[in-house]
Q: What sequence folds into this?
């Protein structure tokens, strides 16, 4: 990922609203994608994943959309809650490799 | 459920010293990954091991080395430490052969170089 120093992109949403977090990836060969949530001082926590043969996958309150044409991923969080406040990262990998590349994180702030 | 265990959780070292971080993957996971995350930065991939063999290499400095042992735990050795090595070091593990190959992260080891 790119070095963004201490200035992560920030998304502020009202509690109860829907959140959309975006991510761009650069490797057109990537075929598996994961969204992670990271709280301060903790390890990235798996949220949802998607393979390149899909363009949408839904979980509990979360949906991931994949647009391979423009190499773009989005994470939609429904009815955002205070506990959703964290930094969100996307990561991608290519089958046959053993590394995941993280995109630039987005800090989600949920306003009461 | 068992998670990835990392030790130590916090480590303070002086410049030019050596540090070793340990990682115990989730049971039955055969692949281990190491990442470095500076303050406010994205996790940067360092190196990975599959079945005790190095598989992929990222931006790991030559001063760092790592290995995976017969019980699948891994150690990251860092020598000639520099101030810029201060970061949160994550280990993650996965199980090959599973379709999704999702990687799960530990809570990280905080390294502070003074």
A:
């Amino acid at each position: 990922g790119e070095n963004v120093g201490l200035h992560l992109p920030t998304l502020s949403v009202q509690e109860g609203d829907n959140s959309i977090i975006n991510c761009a990836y650069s490797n057109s060969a990537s075929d598996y994608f994961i969204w992670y949530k990271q709280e301060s001082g903790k390890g990235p926590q798996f949220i949802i994943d998607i393979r390149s043969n899909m363009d949408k996958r839904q979980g509990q309150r979360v949906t991931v959309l994949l647009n391979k044409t423009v190499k773009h991923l989005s994470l939609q969080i429904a009815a955002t809650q205070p506990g959703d406040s964290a930094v969100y990262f996307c990561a991608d990998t290519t089958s046959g490799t053993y590394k995941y590349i993280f995109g630039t994180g987005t800090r989600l702030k949920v306003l009461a | 459920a068992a998670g990835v265990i990392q030790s130590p959780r916090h480590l303070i070292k002086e410049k030019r010293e050596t540090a070793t971080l340990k990682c115990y993957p989730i049971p039955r996971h055969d692949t281990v990954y190491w990442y470095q995350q500076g303050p406010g930065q994205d996790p940067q991939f360092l190196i990975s091991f599959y079945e005790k063999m190095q598989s992929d290499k990222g931006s790991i400095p030559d001063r760092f080395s790592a290995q995976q042992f017969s019980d699948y735990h891994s150690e990251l050795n860092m020598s000639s430490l520099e101030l810029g090595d201060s970061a949160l070091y994550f280990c993650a593990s996965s199980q090959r052969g599973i379709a999704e190959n999702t990687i799960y992260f530990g809570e990280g080891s905080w390294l502070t170089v003074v």
Confidence is low (pLDDT under 50) at residues 1-6 of chain A. DSSP finds no helices and ten strands in chain A. The interface with chain B takes residues 1-8, 32, 34, 36, 41-46, 49, 51, 89, 93, 97-105 of chain A (CB under 8 Å).
